[in-house]
Design goal:
It is built from six helices and no strands. With about 160 residues, it is mainly α. The chain binds flavin-adenine dinucleotide.
Length: about 160
């Protein structure tokens, strides 16, 4: 099944598996009415959908923020900001990237320290959570979640 952006580019990273299943059900209905489906997918190593890509990207972004230097050099500050700007230009889900550009304008990256950058990243993610109607993450737990593991020891080796 091919998903396309509004301007016609193929974009699996713009839809979730849930969206695709919905589309699949619509196709099944069409099939019942005599229009054959062409889907024969059996691979596990398929291109990332919107949610898989999102989870992987947040994993990188939060990890980057909690390992960011406590006292970054000017160059590191510039690179952190430039990374987020580039992401907002190149992120494959086009409407996500558009909203990210808006979010970065509203609150530009805070990169003076690890604490600042990791909290800023958490707020950025919470903006997306809020937009999607998901629960907000408690930003005081960002180091437990992304660097040290939970205090109950459940992530210890
Ligand atoms: C920059 C960016 C913009 C996106 N924009 C959109 C969009 O506009 N529309 C859309 O449909 N999807 C968007 N996505 C994808 C979306 O955010 C989710 O990644 C996707 O829906 C999968 O959600 P999930 O519930 O599996 O967990 P995710 O939201 O991917 O979260 C992964 C894990 O991060 C942790 N977490 C959650 N919130 C926070 C937080 N605030 N701080 C720290 N850790 C946290 C939780 O442990 C969670 O399990 C975007 C992704 C990125 C990276």
């Amino acid at each position: 099944m091919e998903i396309r952006t509004e301007d016609g580019r193929p974009c699996r990273a713009c839809v979730s598996v849930g969206d695709m299943l919905k589309k699949g059900r619509e196709m099944a209905e069409k099939f019942k009415k005599g229009e054959p489906s062409t889907s024969t997918t059996t691979h596990k190593d398929c291109p990332a959908d919107k949610d898989e890509l999102g989870r992987a990207t947040w994993k990188l972004l939060h990890s980057m923020s909690v390992y960011y230097p406590d006292q970054p050099s000017e160059e590191q500050k510039q690179k952190a900001t430039a990374f987020m700007t580039s992401l907002s230009e190149l992120y494959p889900c086009d409407f996500c990237a558009k909203d990210l550009r808006k979010d970065l304008k509203e609150e530009p990256p805070k990169v003076q320290s690890r604490q600042e950058f990791s909290q800023w990243m958490c707020r950025l993610h919470n903006k997306v959570n809020e937009k999607m109607g998901k629960p907000l993450f408690d930003c005081s737990k960002v180091f437990e979640r992304w660097r040290d593991g939970w205090k109950d020891g459940s992530c210890d080796y």
